[in-house]
Design brief:
This is Membrane protein YphA (DoxX/SURF4 family). By secondary structure, the protein is mainly alpha-helical. It contains six helices and no strands. It folds into two domains: 125 residues, no CATH class; 51 residues.
């Protein structure tokens, strides 16, 4: 792991750990803000009759746990995906600037919303970070290209061997004809 990743991961994870712990420890304080978002996704996601505060607590725990893993460099891509997925509903519910009253409150909520959106974006960038190693797409394209090259090389080798075998067989036929002529002429 490069020094940049060694520094950046814990810095990014700190914000997620803090927010996740706040959500998990005090879900009641956040349940009211989360209610409109939960009601919209309750039916499509099959959440049933679960209380909003329990969903807030689960989201906070998932956010904090995945951020800890990410900060430690354990399962960084999977944990970054969980971080992004768990922060998105929090950002939409906690900082709904479009529902805020007053210009100053709307500005403050918009700033916080954009900050959370930036954190989601940073987590999504981390999801696709392969740490300098080739990704799966590149490796599959490379394998296909190498297989194509290998089959072309095998075809060239087979044609060369066939020409050589034909040339050798022709030489053997001519040599056999000369030997047969030498024996007849004796």
């Amino acid at each position: 792991m490069t020094i940049m990743r060694r520094l950046a991961r814990p810095l990014l994870a700190a914000a997620f750990v803090d927010q996740g712990v706040q959500l998990a420890r005090r879900p009641g304080e956040h349940a009211e803000a989360w209610t409109p978002v939960v009601e919209r996704v309750r039916q499509p996601l099959g959440l049933g009759d679960r209380e909003v505060s329990s969903l807030v607590r689960v989201d906070g725990a998932a956010m904090a746990a995945s951020a800890l893993l990410f900060g430690l460099g354990r399962l960084p891509r999977a944990s970054a995906l969980v971080m992004a997925a768990s922060l998105a509903p929090a950002a939409a519910s906690e900082h709904a600037f479009w529902r805020a009253d007053g210009v100053d409150e709307r500005k403050r909520q918009r700033t916080l919303f954009l900050k959370d959106l930036g954190l989601v974006g940073a987590a999504l960038v981390s999801v696709v970070d392969t740490e300098g190693r080739p990704g799966l797409g590149w490796r599959s394209r490379r394998a296909a290209k190498d297989a194509g090259r290998a089959s072309k090389a095998a075809g060239r080798l087979a044609r060369r061997e066939a020409r050589h075998a034909a040339h050798t067989a022709g030489r053997e036929v001519r040599l056999a004809g000369h030997r047969a002529g030498d024996k007849v002429g004796l």
